[in-house]
Design brief:
The structure is a single chain. It is built from 15 helices and 16 strands. The protein folds into three domains: 198 residues, FAD/NAD(P)-binding domain (3-Layer(bba) Sandwich), CATH 3.50.50.60; 122 residues, no CATH class; 134 residues, Polyamine Oxidase, Chain A, domain 2 (Alpha-Beta Complex). The chain is an alpha+beta fold. It starts with a strand and ends in a 17-residue tail after the last helix. The chain is 33% helix and 17% strand. A hairpin with a 2-residue loop joins β7 and β8. Bound molecules: flavin-adenine dinucleotide (FAD). The site of flavin-adenine dinucleotide (FAD) has 31 residues, from β1, β11, α12 and α14.
Length: 503
């Protein structure tokens, strides 16, 4: 089908677009990827588009967790971390074995989730019943634990009180188990060479090679509607693009409240969207260093830095003195991101747009805003210097600070949310994420159409939205893509050391 992608920025890709400062390249979002390795869902869908897709290499050293005096490394051999913990906390050893066994079981399920990515709406009645049954069986290991908080879960596994602090920022037990589970199945990848921007660049090439168009520097202002059908879009430069189908892959509230005619979307649904529980935004400090990051002690792994003793929620509420900080050295994974002999460092923590960012009355950036973001970054960097890298400031050549305001300005996600709606019960009951809209030929896509966010979810949403359009348009491409999405994965394909399949 002929497609026109409309994008307000000069560089397409939203959170994957990345940016360049002097000769340093930075990812604007990605810390690690899942499902992008062989057997993963993203790999499957991208392989359907072209075998020359960017390759996301597997990560061996995944996450170092440094909380107070505790310092442990999760690798693609999670048993090594379990043994290190058992040695330091012998009283918790039986509990740790139970915890890591459960994580392995959860990881096994997650590694098969790629078979369940087709949305129910894309299936016929029999397909829905069959898929529903399989999904229920798949979800059995989650049944007894998914409602438990991290404290409840870890205590029930039998971990000592002191050890609970290692996961001090996690709210629910699944947030502890799922990352360990991914590690068991080797489902962690680094961004492809050149950073996450390699994906949108490749996709644009494919779109244009297929005779379709990417229209840059045009922001959709209005979805045109006639006789109960979407007929196209109008951009802020007054360009009108007529279309048989419209897909909206951007902030949902903006689509429903600003782009569609007033009164078209029921107030009840608008109310539910306004009250949805969303992922927060972030402050991301990107540093260009005058030396390789390894000289300062950084490796391939992401480091999560926290201090015990705070309320769990406080770690993601945006106080730079308390926030859990993720520190990553992208050049230790991909040296092409910096000039030779230099390195990059990304320092990240959760933050919200509701904090006082000293904006002007119409959310414009003021000198006070610039000072506020610099002050915020300085607190984060001081903590990183003290805990991890003495002398860090002496090596900083350039620094870029992105706040929730930056995330919102560049992508228009509400509040600069990094991943849209959380996959929790309240959001699911309110049906916050969905594909079908009030117009039969308009669908949602991107991370707002699903729960949980991230690259795999955005790709899942894109594939399902494409299926819905092709189904409605009776296109043969429907069954081709559906077959690819339904393909069962060979278990264990994610295991470390598996080579990526490329053209
Ligand atoms: C700091 C940070 C860290 C993250 N870490 C990870 C990670 O480690 N791993 C992971 O998998 N995911 C991570 N994510 C999440 C991931 O980046 C997103 O979930 C994913 O990229 C969402 O893709 P999307 O295309 O749905 O939306 P977006 O990337 O938000 O793109 C939305 C697009 O819509 C465009 N748009 C907006 N308004 C309009 C309009 N009016 N007209 C036309 N176009 C419009 C925007 O310009 C943009 O291009 C992170 C995100 C952030 C911000």
């Amino acid at each position: 089908m002929r497609v026109c992608v409309v994008e307000p920025e000069l560089r397409p890709g939203g959170y994957l677009a990345g940016f360049k400062r002097k000769k340093f390249l930075f990812d604007s979002a990605i810390h690690w990827l899942n499902q992008c390795g062989p057997g993963g869902f993203v790999h499957k869908v991208f392989g359907h588009i072209g075998l020359d897709h960017p390759v996301a290499p597997p990560l061996q050293r995944i996450r170092r967790m440094k909380c107070g005096d505790m310092d442990y490394l999760l690798t693609d051999q999670p048993d090594a971390m379990r043994e290190a913990l058992c040695k330091d906390f012998p009283g918790s050893a039986p509990g740790l074995h139970k915890l890591f066994d459960k994580a392995r079981q959860i990881g096994d399920r997650m590694s098969r989730y790629s078979e369940f990515n087709r949305a129910f709406e894309t299936r016929n009645l029999f397909g829905k019943a069959f898929a529903g049954m399989r999904l229920a069986l798949w979800g059995l290991p989650f049944a007894r634990i998914y409602k438990k908080t991290a404290v409840e879960g870890l205590t029930e596994f039998g971990l000592e009180r002191e050890l609970l602090d290692l996961w001090c920022s996690e709210i629910d037990i699944l947030s502890v188990l799922v990352p360990l589970g991914w590690a068991y199945y080797g489902d962690y990848q680094a961004p492809p060479e050149g950073g996450s921007m390699a994906y949108p660049r490749w996709l644009v090439e494919k779109i244009e090679a297929a005779g379709s168009t990417v229209l840059l520097r045009h922001r959709v202002e209005e979805i045109l509607v006639k006789d109960g059908l979407a007929t196209g879009v109008r951009t802020h430069k007054d360009a009108v693009i007529e279309a048989d189908y419209v897909l909206a892959a951007c902030d949902l509230e903006t689509v429903y409240e600003k782009m569609l005619p007033k009164g078209m979307v029921p107030d009840e649904l608008l109310g539910k969207l306004r009250n949805a529980d969303l992922y927060p935004s972030s402050v991301t400090v990107s540093l260009g260093l005058d030396c390789p990051a390894s000289d300062l002690g950084f490796g391939q792994e992401m480091i999560f830095l926290s201090e015990p003793g705070h309320d769990r929620q406080a770690y993601s509420d945006g106080d730079p003195n308390i926030a859990g900080i993720s520190v990553l050295a992208p050049t230790e994974r991909d040296s092409t991101m910096a000039p030779e002999g230099k390195g990059t460092l990304t320092v990240y923590c959760s933050a919200t747009m509701k904090q006082d960012w000293k904006l002007g009355p119409n959310n414009e950036r003021t000198p006070e805003y610039k000072a506020a973001k610099k002050a915020f970054a300085e607190v984060l960097l001081k903590r990183v210097e003290t805990e991890l890298a003495p002398g860090l400031p002496d090596h900083v050549e350039i620094m870029d600070v992105a706040t929730p305001v930056t995330h919102w300005r560049y992508t228009h996600n509400r509040g600069g949310s990094i991943m849209a709606a959380k996959p929790n019960k309240a959001n699911m009951q309110a049906k916050v994420a969905h594909y079908r809209t009030v117009l039969p030929n308009m669908f949602l896509s991107g991370h707002w159409a699903e729960y949980g966010g991230g690259v795999p979810i955005a790709v899942k949403a894109a594939a399902n939205a494409s299926l819905l359009v092709m189904k409605a348009a009776k296109q043969p491409g429907f069954s081709e893509l559906a077959r690819v999405m339904d393909e069962p994965d060979v278990r264990g394909r994610y295991r470390p050391g598996t080579k990526a399949i490329t053209g």
